[in-house]
Amino acid sequence: MASLMWMHKHGPHRKLRPNRNPLGDKPFAKGVVLKTLIKKPKKPNSANRKCVLVRLSTGKEMTAYVPGIGHNLQEHNVVLVRVGRLKDVPGVKIKCVRGKYDLGHVIKQPQK
Q: Which residues pair with 31 in a beta bridge?
């Protein structure tokens, strides 16, 4: 009976899960590009993914994906990164934000 009364008072048990956000509760982070990389995706996919190694303002070094066609990133450029996993490339958990700091907008391709 005591356990029923305890459940009535406290409600159902909820498991506390650890935070899986790679940026640690923050939606965005600023970082400096250390190196540009080309990563290969997992098995059924084959197009190379353009990535950069970024040192974040928090002190972490992570690999970030650069979305869109073409980019102008080189060493020492400043980028804004957001949380966004790249499912087919292992180890890439963040994406760069286009049009902020040193990473320009995607240039529109001419129609053929």
A: 56, 79
Using CB atoms within 10 A of its CB, is residue 79 exposed (0-12), middle (13-18) or buried (19+)? buried
Extract the tokens encoding 40.
Answer: 């290969």
**pLDDT tens digits, residue range 39-92?**
999 999 999 999 999 999 999 999 999 999 999 999 999 999 999 999 999 999
pLDDT(18) > 90? yes
Three-state SS string over 52-97 comes to EEEEECCCCEEEEECCCCCCCCCCCCEEEEEECCCCCCCCCCEEEC
Positive or negative, the Cα torsion across 53, 54, 58, 59?
positive
